[in-house]
Amino acid sequence: MKKGILLLAILFVFSCKNETKSNGKLNVVTSTTMITDLVKNIGGDYINVEGLMGSGVDPHLYKASEGDVTKLVNADVIFYNGLHLEGKLVEIFEKMDSDKETIALADEINKKQLIVSEYFASNYDPHVWFDINFFKQFVEKVTIVLSEKDPINAEKYRENEKRYLADLNKLDEDVQGVVDVLPKEKRILVTAHDAFNYFGKAYDFEVVGLQGLSTATEAGVQDVQKLAAFIIDKKIKAIFIESSVPKRTIEALQAAVKSKGHDVVIGGTLYSDALGNAGTAEGTYVGMYRYNIKTIVSALQ
Ligand SMILES: [Zn+2]
After folding, report:
1. Which of 74, 118, 234, 249 has the most C-beta neighbours closer than 10 Å?
2. Which of 147, 174, 201 is the last residue of a domain?
3. Mean pLDDT, residues 191-214 taken together
4. How far is the CA of 162 from the centre of ligand 1 (A)?
5. Which Gene3D superfamilies match (predicted)?
6. Domain coverage including residue 290
7. Which residues surround ligand 1, an ion (CB under 5 A)?
């Protein structure tokens, strides 16, 4: 019912849309904080960027507000992750497709390289940004689109792209350096939901999520008991909370391990589906990745 009203609202705003562009700059709307940070890195001061989701927001459950609809309607370009990460926004994005440039960045990745998953309507795990090479493909696509839409500043976008890709290459190298310190048998990452499969694939970690790929499904008692037995069997020292998922599931897992006479610590909070607060190091993709890997490796060592 609510969804119907929202769609009607969109159609209404479309019909009375005027073409005013604030300060002559391209209006870009983004979904997750990772994509907002990326687009700001490429667009700099040459564009207006409005991110829909803030720090700590879970994109699987996020619903558009009335304010979001206004931002979307006024946008020249919309960038989102896709692969049904933004499960409740997809319908709105798809409605907009014919009217404006609406781009699912994950569509840039060759499907053969994606991790197959039956949890999502897309049939693929949507947490692709945790593979830095995939995130670099996002960067390339954003640069192309901004340059096409705003050719006057195209040279600036390409300069920013070059600098940002160099930052991401350095990040990849540094992450690998930190991971190399951790022996192979200790590379097991247990978190609240399965956000880290691409990270695991890239850096040779076994990844186990308590809630499956989406936070829309709750973990059952059986899952908790099974995972507790796994933690004891593999002598895993630490498990991790995620900033955008309530911590009670991981605390229940810790309690289950303790009830069997063993101990596992909570190794810290990882940023999974959202970055940290704006203005902090973890509020950027690069800072988030550095923080996560340091937290993971120091707790598992
Ligand atoms: Zn997720």
Report:
1. 249
2. 174
3. 89
4. 29
5. Nitrogenase molybdenum iron protein domain
6. 181-300
7. 195, 273
